[in-house]
Sequence to fold (520 residues):
Amino acid sequence: MVFLSVVNFTRSRGPDEFWRKRRIFRLAAHYIGRSRNCYSIAVRNVHRALAYATKARKLKKQDMIDLWNTRITAACEQHNITYYTLKEGLDRANIMLDRKSLSDLASWEPRTFECLAAVAKQKVEYDGFNDGTDKNRPTGTNLKLKDVMLEAWLKENKKF
Amino acid sequence: MSVIRAGLQRITNIIRNGSGGILSRFITNSALIENKTVPQTPKEVISACNKLIEENASRNFAIVHLLGKQWRVTDGDLLVVEGYWPPNIGDKITLDKVLLAATKDFSLIGRPLVQPGLVTVTATVISKGLSHTRTHFKKKRRKQYMRINFQRAEQTMLRINSVNIASKINEPSKNVF
Amino acid sequence: MSNSNLFLKSGFIRAPLQNGVGRFVPQLQRIVLKFCKSNGSSRGLRDFIEQDLVDFAKQNPSVVVYLKPRRHRGPVIVAEYLNGDRVWMGMHNKTHSEITKWIEVLRTQQGDIASLRLRKYQYTDYPSVQGPWTPFTFKDPELNTAKLPDPKYGANNRLPMTATEKLRLMFEKQKLNDVNTAE
Fold:
């Protein structure tokens, strides 16, 4: 074969070019279109992907905390207590279960969570801490005056 | 007895504390088949729980504090903890910081830990190695600023062998350590 | 969204054959040390072989150690595990102490754990001991046979205390105080 014209504008950037680009292409194997095959486009997308992955590691932790909070709140509502009261009661009672454990118990061990909610409620009552959000305090229809007065008397005389 | 047990889903909860804290209990019943008197005083609650511990009817689980995190653990679980941790493969270990232990019928809540001799959680270390490479990549666009760092964490895999509620409640435990 | 084209595959924790439940079995099956007898890059590996290899083999009777002296090739360690994984590690220009540490890592691994991104750090066959939460866990079983609308189940009993009730309470407390002071 005789080449009549010299091929211009092509030069190899170095012997390692293939391997250098392969590091990017391996990460971009599941992209679509030119992002998978053309280096300049792949590089941009790979850099974005890595930057997103780095930032997301922190965000994932925040997301998990939010998820756990939602689950605990939902479970609390079933037992007529608020998340705030639960946290307050458990903290005062020195029970140091974190959000992950509490949400775990709420979804998989409902009875234990019921116990914890009751403990928190009792502790908060013993301490006289009323955040006013518990909607199940006695109403007019089932108001037992005797019990209420007894409670008030006991509190005043500090019998417990 | 088992029929009554099946009907009575009774949860008693006891708060244990080394320095004698408040004893409070909460009992729920659902679908009582027989009119059994539900224990009310702390003594009855404790004796009922001790009976349940002896019978050992169901699987126990515990919430254990390990390497700064809390794990919900039963027999036969696999756990992977990250970070520097001395125990080598094949070592048998007891996880001592137990925050909560429970079965199907009752739960023991620690303030913050349950009594040391009460719950024993044993585990075996299965494997120790380095995690996959985590790429820490920072880039500021149009500012020629690009940094890349690689990090591999040490990971230890544990197999939880057993979670036992060993002794009875309110009995002083024998020399644990 | 397939897993096959991803650079790093993800999965959950597994232990082969319930390792640790009964007996614990070390997972390293064989380790092959390929080195050159004269090249400088194999110096660390050669030092390791001369000094620490016999102790390593004695302390790990379950591991088969192969030595392959290869001329004009770089030093390499290949570890094979009981679950079939093959881990190739180049020891080119590594010092004796570094190689000792890497061999320790290979010994305590249970396969190629660096190739899998763990999605969760816990695995359990029994996620729930008391039964998982369902919408019917805390509902009264009599609801099954109740005829709705029912005044008992439809009652609004989550109202806050009304002003009338508060006044009643205050009145009763005042009466109590009067009785006390009278005494």
